[in-house]
Amino acid sequence: MRPRHLGVALFLLLSTTLAMAASDVVGIWHGSSNDGQNENPFTLTIVRDAGVLKGSIDVADNTYTLDHLVVTDEGKVTFSININGSLYTNEATLEGDTLAGTYSSPDGDGTWKATRGKPADAGSH
Asked: Are the CB atoms for 121 and 28 separated by under 8 Å?
């Protein structure tokens, strides 16, 4: 294979791999956060809209938008949420159908874990 063709092939392979890594996070996730005293259930929804990852989180009967949602090809997921003027920054790792991570905010820090819902969940949300 010519060097130029090899470069194009590697570019296409890398682009496809990155897209697949980011798409692995798409879905509905059910989980809970823990601040050391309380456990709070939530539903995290991540979609791909026109090639851009977007998401929201439903917690305590409220829905908040995920800002600055980034997924790396290593499975690292980061995003922030503005809840009533407090910025919650989140870092997590994607492993199969599990997202697990930490959050920090002016109100305190904690951990969270979520499991990808079954495909039937998509129609019920």
From this structure: yes
